[in-house]
Structure formats: structure tokens, C-alpha cells
């Protein structure tokens, strides 16, 4: 999604802003822009469509834009096409040269999110003589701030709070006012924004990696707060314009964690970080052979009181939910429903205080997942967030939080966050089973031991990557790929299929193996690749039969199974083995070859692995 950066200090702002934007590139964008001001001079705006290097070229790598205070933006189009005129920053003035130029405006700003009532606001502003040059909702907000600023002759903070009361939707805003040189004003609602301070400088960003190189001291500006930012300082205000305290937080991530570290792509690096991500997550949740969910406040009493669980999430996090449902039901005997957050928020699912709604999210900012969490709370359910980004909105709003310790994930296609989420959900399932008396102490200990052994087993799967690289080069011209499995193997298939399609642009579908013959099998042609996930012994023969049905219609077959199931080689063309573990936990191993398959296929096709087209890392709009 869109990215915001800001800088005010003693250095030239434009190169710092471009650097910050480059670190947010992974979020996905289609145009970019900067506004920089030199002392009391008006801000100069430059914008460009396409990759960030176009903007860098246009500004001579930032050198052509003089000034020590500025804001920057990468835009992922929602309202209005991805054109230069629609790119941010936007200005309050009535004329803006299409490619930017000196903005003779009192207010200039960038925005992430969606303003739902922008049409109505635009109409009002048109009546007051404002002329609009873009199709964006952002232009309406910047002009509305300007309108209140002038109408009431009030300062920037009050003009912004009045605007916040008037707009509906979500936003992170960074604004500069012509009369306030060296200052940036920021506000947010349901869209992330942080402010970092150093000795003589301050930084704004929609995500931590943009400023990690400069400072680790950050303020997480809260929902419906305004910040007034000057070099080295930030003051916060509530909606009434009263000053309010926001704690300064230290980022513990290593800056190197957001670098490629010798790997060709972030995705490959993050695939290799999975043993550590899973180990760190497990270590934080398991102490002395017992799951310790105390930090999350999930007491045994709470766990025993539950009569149902609903898991709501998007994308790969939803796939984690799909896997977790089998494990929780099987071990703990609690009925589980798994819902896409975008669907859950608009249905009237009955629930009460004995329903636990678990929202899984890497970013903790996904708009639909956040909305699902709020709906669950309104309906009286107890809520638990399983989140990677500390301090994110979902983490702050949920009743209870379990953090995954995957570290910063940069590639759009998630890998290590997915694996860390799976591990966290497995610990939760085991603990629920124990607390509800569903398993013996011995069984519980065995489960935790198996979990503790996963990081090393994932590392062993990674050692086999050359074979997958070879196989990927063979399939890189495929038109369709089907991923099939039953039970937990179906859940892994969903993730394998998503990894393949999102970065290689090859059409793929995941199907519950037994359902294939009810329609989808008609798509199987000579040479169509069908990948069967075969890790569940009880379901092994059944899925193999379904693969055979495909083979007899021309399909070529790949199988992923556990060590020892060598007979599978009699039936399939290419087999990958993963180490044995408790069958509840095989998704943590089976997903790794599927991630590598998607990765290497994308590389063979020469695609932009880390930043696939049309996608965003964190989807903060509905
Ligand atoms: C986007 C990402 C996916 C991710 C999904 C949910 O679509 O591209 O990789 O699974 O959002 O994100 P979350 O941050 O809530 O886990």
C-alpha cells in the first residue's frame, strides 16, 4: 500500500526522503512524489509515475530539490488512475503543474488510506471556490485543512482536528504549512504512522524500515491524534487540541534485518530466516517445557470457558487459520470456524463472551482484519491478536495479543511470518488441549518437543533447495498448476498455490483433493501439473488416488510427502520429502518446498519477486 516519509532537520531532505521511500517500495506502489521546502520558501513538489528511480532521475537523486524539511509518498492507486497529477503530495492551491513545480499553496500533504465522504467534501469546497486538479480523495482533505485554517484563522493543529472530525474513512496524513517552516504536522486514523526522533532531526514514516537507518526512538502516534513535528521533537494533541503524552519506544529490530544480507531477494532471505523465526516465536511462548501464555493474559479459566473459536484473517494469515482449525479441533476439541476477514465483517455471526475471535495478521494493520476485530468486540466476543508488528493497531485493540517473532518482513509474499504464525497457533492448540484436559501430560510434552525440533527440520528442508530450483526451471512455462490435499494438506496447498500465483503470475488453484472431481478436474489437460501434498498418513492413499485420477487425464504429478513414503515415487514424476514430525505440525515443513517452488519459478521467469505487480505488503484499505 501507499508509503509516507517525512524529514525535518539539518540535512538536505530530498535524498533522505528518497532513501526512506526506497525502503517502503516493498509495500507496492505505482507512482511517487516529494515536497521539499527551503526555510520559509514555499514547498516545491515533484512527482513521477512508475518506479522510484523515475522520481530520483527527475530530481537528480534529490539534489535538485533544496531544503531541509519535506514529505514524500509512494502511491498505490485507489481513487483516480496512477498518473502524475494524481500522485502525492497534493496542494491546497488551485493550480498544480502536472509534474509538480513550485506550489504556491498554504498547505501541502500526503495521505495513506481512503476518505469515504470525499465526494461530499469536494462539493462543499467547490462551492467555496476551490478548484480541483486531481481525481484523488487526498486533494479534498488537503483543501479542507486549508479551508478551516483560513476560515477560522486557527493554527495547523486546530485546522487538522476540525478536518478529522469532518472526514470519514481511514488516514495517515503528513502536512506542511507555508507559515510554519521546519515543521511537519501529522494525524492518523486506522492507517499506520510513526515518528522517529534523533538529536537534531525528526522522521515520519508509515513503516519502521524507512527510518531504521536514522533512529530507533519512535513514537507510535495513536488513532485520532495529531503530532506537531520539528527537528528532534514531537508534540502530540488529542481531538480537542489538548496536548497528550505518547511514550517513546525503542525499536529492537536490527537494522541489518531489513537488508538483503547477500541474498538475491528479500523473499529468499526470509525463507532462510524461517528456522530462526519459528525458534524465536516458540522460545517466547514456551518456558521450561510449558506454554506460557501469561503475557497474552490467556488464563486456563478463559481457555476452559470457550465454546467456540472464530479465526478471521486475510491472505496467507487466513491460510494459517485454515491449518490451525484442524489442529485445534483435533487436539483441544473446540469447534473452529475460519473466516476471511473481508467476509466476516459483513456477516451476522452469532457470538458471545465464550467465543474467542482470533485475528491473525503479520502487519497488524490490514484494514479488513482490523474491522473484523472491531466487529467481534462489538458483538461481545473475546479477542486475541496473533501479530508480528509490535505496537500495530490490531495488537493494541485486541483483548489479548500473542506476538510472533519473525522480525521485519519485506518481501510482499510472506514466508517467515506465515511460519511463525503457524508455530504460535500450534502452541496455542497444544495449550488449549492441556488446559481443557483433552490430552495427557505425556502427550503434551511430546507435542512441545516436536515443536521445538521444527526449526532444525525446516533447515534440513532448505538444504534440498537445488532440486526445487531445477524443477522450477522445468515448469516455468506452465499455464495452470493445481495444488491438492486433504485436511492439513489442503491448508498447505492453499498457501503453496498463493505463493505460486502471486509472484510467478502462473494461474494456480488449490483444491481439497476429494472435491476436484466435482468440476475442476475438467481443466486437467495433457501436461497440466498437479502437486499433491501427502503428509497425513490417514489421508495419504485417498489423495494419491485423486492424483491418479488426474494422471489418467494427462496430468504430470509432483508429490510432497514425509521421509519413508518412498512408494509414492512409483506414481508421481517428482517427489520432495520432508522430515517426519507429529502430523499436526507437518504444514511447517511442507510449506517450505512450496515457497521455494514459487520463488524459483518467479526467478526463472525473470519477474520482480519481492514486489509483484498489483500487490501490496500491507493492505490498509478495504
Ligand atoms: C497482503 C499480503 C499477504 C498477506 C495479507 C494479510 O495481501 O500481500 O502476504 O498475507 O496481506 O496481511 P497481514 O499483514 O494482515 O498478515
Sequence-ordered SSE layout with sheet pairings:
Layout: E1 3-8, H1 13-23, E2 31-37, E3 44-49, H2 52-58, E4 69-75, E5 90-91, E6 100-102, E7 107-115, H3 118-127, H4 137-151, H5 156-166, E8 169-177, E9 184-189, E10 194-197, E11 202-205, E12 217-220, E13 225-230, E14 233-237, E15 243-244, E16 248-250, H6 266-272, H7 274-285, E17 286-287, E18 290-291, H8 300-305, E19 308-313, H9 315-332, E20 336-340, H10 341-344, E21 355-361, H11 367-378, E22 382-387, H12 393-397, E23 400-403, H13 416-435, H14 441-462, H15 465-475, E24 480-485, H16 488-504, E25 507-512, E26 529-534, H17 537-551, E27 556-562, E28 574-578, H18 587-604
Parallel strand pairs: 19-20, 19-21, 21-22, 22-23, 24-25, 24-26, 26-27, 27-28
Antiparallel strand pairs: 1-4, 1-11, 2-3, 2-4, 3-6, 5-7, 7-8, 8-9, 9-13, 10-11, 10-12, 12-16, 13-14, 14-15, 17-18
6-O-phosphono-alpha-D-glucopyranose is lined by residues 314-317, 361-363, 366, 369, 412, 414, 615, 617-619.
Structural description of this entry:
- The chain has 622 residues and is of the alpha/beta class.
- It folds into three domains: 3-251, Glutamine Phosphoribosylpyrophosphate, subunit 1, domain 1, CATH 3.60.20; 266-462, Rossmann fold (3-Layer(aba) Sandwich), CATH 3.40.50.10490; 465-604, Rossmann fold.
- The strands form five sheets. Strands 6-3-2-4-1-11-10-12-16 form a nine-stranded antiparallel beta sheet.
- The longest helix has 22 residues, at 441-462.
- The model has no long low-confidence stretch (mean pLDDT 92).
- Bound molecules: 6-O-phosphono-alpha-D-glucopyranose.
- The site of 6-O-phosphono-alpha-D-glucopyranose (G6P) has 15 residues, from helix 9.
Amino acid at each position: 500500500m501507499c508509503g509516507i516519509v517525512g524529514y525535518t532537520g539539518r540535512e538536505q531532505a530530498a535524498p533522505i526522503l528518497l532513501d526512506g521511500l526506497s525502503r517502503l517500495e516493498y509495500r507496492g506502489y505505482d507512482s511517487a512524489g516529494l515536497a521539499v521546502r527551503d526555510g520559509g520558501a514555499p514547498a516545491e513538489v515533484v512527482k513521477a509515475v512508475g518506479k522510484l528511480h523515475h522520481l530520483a532521475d527527475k530530481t537528480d537523486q534529490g539534489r535538485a530539490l533544496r531544503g531541509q524539511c519535506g514529505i514524500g509518498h509512494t502511491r498505490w492507486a485507489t481513487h483516480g488512475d496512477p498518473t502524475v497529477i494524481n500522485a502525492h503530495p497534493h496542494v491546497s492551491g488551485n493550480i498544480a503543474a502536472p509534474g509538480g513545480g513550485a506550489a504556491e499553496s498554504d498547505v501541502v500533504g500526503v495521505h495513506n488510506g481512503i476518505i469515504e465522504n470525499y465526494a461530499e467534501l469536494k462539493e462543499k469546497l467547490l462551492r467555496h471556490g476551490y478548484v480541483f486538479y486531481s481525481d484523488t480523495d487526498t486533494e479534498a482533505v488537503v483543501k479542507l485543512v486549508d479551508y478551516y485554517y483560513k476560515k477560522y484563522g486557527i493554527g495547523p493543529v486546530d485546522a487538522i482536528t476540525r478536518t478529522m472530525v469532518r472526514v470519514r474513512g481511514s488516514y495517515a496524513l503528513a502536512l506542511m504549512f507555508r507559515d510554519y517552516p521546519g515543521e511537519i504536522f501529522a494525524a492518523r486514523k486506522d492507517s499506520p504512522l510513526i515518528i522517529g526522533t534523533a538529536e537534531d532531526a525528526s522522521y515520519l514514516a508509515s513503516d519502521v524500515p524507512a527510518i531504521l537507518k536514522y533512529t530507533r526512538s519512535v513514537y507510535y502516534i495513536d488513532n485520532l491524534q495529531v503530532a506537531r513535528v520539528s527537528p528532534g521533537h514531537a508534540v502530540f494533541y488529542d481531538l480537542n487540541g489538548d496536548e497528550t503524552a505518547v511514550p517513546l519506544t525503542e525499536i529492537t529490530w536490527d537494522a541489518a534485518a531489513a537488508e538483503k544480507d547477500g541474498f538475491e531477494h528479500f523473499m529468499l532471505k526470509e525463507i532462510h530466516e524461517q528456522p530462526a523465526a519459528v525458534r524465536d516465536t516458540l522460545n517466547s511462548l514456551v518456558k521450561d517445557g510449558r506454554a506460557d501464555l501469561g503475557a497474552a493474559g490467556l488464563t486456563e479459566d478463559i481457555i476452559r470457558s470457550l465454546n467456540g473459536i472464530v479465526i478471521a484473517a486475510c491472505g496467507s494469515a487466513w491460510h494459517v487459520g485454515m491449518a490451525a482449525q484442524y489442529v485445534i479441533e483435533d487436539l483441544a476439541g473446540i469447534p473452529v470456524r475460519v473466516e476471511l476477514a473481508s467476509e466476516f465483517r459483513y456477516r451476522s455471526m452469532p457470538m458471545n463472551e465464550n467465543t474467542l475471535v482470533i485475528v491473525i495478521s503479520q502487519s497488524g494493520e490490514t484494514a479488513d482484519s482490523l474491522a473484523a476485530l472491531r466487529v467481534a468486540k462489538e458483538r461481545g466476543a473475546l479477542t486475541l491478536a496473533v501479530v508480528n508488528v509490535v505496537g500495530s493497531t490490531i495488537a493494541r485493540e485486541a483483548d489479548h495479543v500473542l506476538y510472533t517473532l519473525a522480525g521485519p518482513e519485506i518481501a510482499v509474499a510472506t514466508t517467515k511470518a506465515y511460519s511463525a504464525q503457524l508455530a504460535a497457533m500450534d502452541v496455542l492448540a497444544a495449550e488449549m488441549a492441556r488446559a481443557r484436559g483433552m490430552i495427557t501430560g505425556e502427550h503434551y510434552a511430546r507435542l512441545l518437543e516436536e515443536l521445538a525440533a521444527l526449526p532444525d527440520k525446516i533447515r534440513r528442508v532448505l538444504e534440498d533447495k537445488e532440486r526445487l530450483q531445477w524443477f522450477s526451471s522445468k515448469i516455468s512455462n506452465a499455464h495452470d498448476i493445481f495444488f491438492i490435499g486433504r485436511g492439513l494438506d489442503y491448508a498447505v496447498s492453499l498457501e503453496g498455490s498463493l505463493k505460486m500465483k502471486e509472484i510467478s503470475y502462473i494461474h494456480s488453484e488449490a483444491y481439497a483433493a476429494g472435491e476436484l472431481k466435482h468440476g475442476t478436474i475438467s481443466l486437467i489437460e495433457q501436461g497440466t501439473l498437479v502437486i499433491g501434498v501427502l503428509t497425513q498418513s490417514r489421508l495419504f492413499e485417498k489423495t494419491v488416488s485423486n492424483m491418479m485420477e488426474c494422471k489418467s487425464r494427462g496430468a504430470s504429478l509432483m508429490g510432497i510427502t514425509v521421509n519413508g513414503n518412498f512408494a509414492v515415487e512409483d506414481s508421481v514424476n517428482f517427489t520432495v520429502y520432508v522430515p517426519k514430525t507429529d502430523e499436526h505440525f507437518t504444514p511447517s515443513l511442507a510449506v517450505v518446498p512450496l515457497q521455494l517452488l514459487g520463488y524459483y519459478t518467479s526467478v526463472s521467469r525473470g519477474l520482480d519477486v519481492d514486489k509483484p505487480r498489483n500487490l501490496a505488503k500491507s493492505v490498509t484499505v478495504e
